[in-house]
Amino acid sequence: MKRPLPFHCQAVWPPAALVALFAIGYCVLTAGFQFIQFKMRNMPIDIGAMEETKRIYQFFLGTAAVVYALYRVWRFHPACNHPYRDWLRMSPWTSGQPLPLGPIHLVWQDAAVIGVLAAVAIWHVRINPVLPVIAFGLTYLILLTILLGVTRRWPWFLAAGFLWPALMLPSAEGWPRIVVILVLILTIWEGQRKSLQAFPWLFLNNFKGTQGVDGRSCLNMEIGLKGVGDGPSYLGWPYRVLSPKIERRAIPAVISFFVSALAGWWTYCIVKSSAAVSTPGLIVVFGLMAASIRLLIYCSGVAPPVNVWGRMTSGRILIPGFDKVFLTPLAVVLAGEMGGIAVRHSGSRYAAVESCVIALLGLVLLTGGPTLRNWTLTGQLRFRPTPSLQGRNQNQMLRRV
To answer: Deepest in the core among 50, 240, 316, 332, taking most CB within 10 A?
Structure first.
């Protein structure tokens, strides 16, 4: 029989040091305002009623709620707490049992802590008590959404990614926004449940029992000899480039499609919520930046087999095995130029057109060939040393053993 969720846990109370830090900071802040009020006692000014004072208190209470949300997730989620995750992997724990250290879902102690911050806000500062609640809730849900991506629960991560920007739409005011929040909470909760069912997460492996000395696979370790060179005990370039590596996997077409659609949807929601004007120039700049980043990722550490002078003297102006890496960035730049023209002539529907162009650019960028693994293994290229080694004499680094 499935055990009910425990909605009480004494372990989730904030540590005494964190409570003391909050109390000392709040007392110092209040004493400072009281001191200013005492110095200005001859002037008819109430420091506590000023908007600037209330903003400072709002920032302090909101920061306290954010810090508590960070503590709740970082302390009790196995994906954040590495020693806890390693110990949990060796234990007979299963997802059908409560987490030994404490639950990652909210319990009544969380309501008590945030309730204290809300009580301070309404009774002492005279500000809206909803502010600490919103700060805690947003931080808590955002962190859990990020952890869905860290633990590779992609369906729920993408679903939450589509729901988050929907909260910014002007048409989501009122009850639609409440419905979206409820669906978002259910999506994140179901994703976290599936994430715990998939434990242990081997891709977050920090367990040293089946790994090398430092937790890495022996196939991913660099070739090294003690006493070689003045730096670390590794031979460095080019042996680091030629050493075995973890296989680079291409992004599946389905993931590329949904990530591109997610980028377009975020663009649409941001443009609609901010009521920004049409900016076709930004589309062109985005295309140029995206193409440059892809080229930087592909061409870092490698170079063409011959330089420009070698191409001219040999008559091989184009080297297909190497120059194919420029095809996808060129397509992204051309798509950005065409997209800018389309946005310029879109009229009042510029928000939808901009989102479609961004989605198209992302799709071309992610699905365009060659893949990074294919490029590294079959491209007509040559490896070059890292910048830290280019200015040093290789003969001085590799001494006779």
So the answer is: 332
Within 8 A by CB and 6+ apart from 270, the residues are 165, 168, 276
Q: What Å distances lie between residue 334 and 2, 97, 129, 284, CA to CA?
A: 56, 54, 51, 9
Of 216, 215, 260, nearest to 364 (Cα)?
A: 260
Buried b (16+ CB within 10 A) or exposed e, 107-132: bebbeebbeebbebbeeebebebebb
**In the block, which residue shows the tokens 């941001």?**
270
Give me the pLDDT at residue 95, please.
85
- Residues 146, 228 share a domain: no
Pairwise CA distance, residues 102 & 311, whole Å: 64
Q: Is residue 79 exposed (0-12), middle (13-18) or buried (19+ Cβ within 10 Å)?
A: buried
C-alpha angle 100/104/109, rounded to 5°?
A: 95
Does 5 map to a domain? no
Provide the terminal-to-terminal Cα distance of the chain, rounded to the nearest Å: 66
How confident is the model over 70-108, as pLDDT tens digits? 999 999 999 998 889 989 988 888 888 888 988 998 999
Nearest alpha-carbon partner for 89 in 218, 214, 194, 209? 209
Same domain for 254 and 319? yes
Domain boundary residue, one of 203, 236, 264: 203
Q: What is the pTM of this model?
A: 0.79
Distance CA 156, CA 184 (A): 10
Residues 335 and 317 in one domain: yes
219 shares its domain with 340: no
Q: Residue 131 corresponds to which tokens in the numbers above?
A: 């502010």
**396 lies in some domain:** no
Query: Does residue 112 surpass a pLDDT of 90?
Result: yes
Contact between 79 and 150 (Cβ < 8 Å): yes
Domain check: are 283 and 176 in the same one? no
Boundaries of domain holding 224: 208-246
| In a domain? residue 336 | yes
Q: Give the integer Cα–Cα distance in Å for 42 and 89.
A: 66
8-state DSSP, 121: I
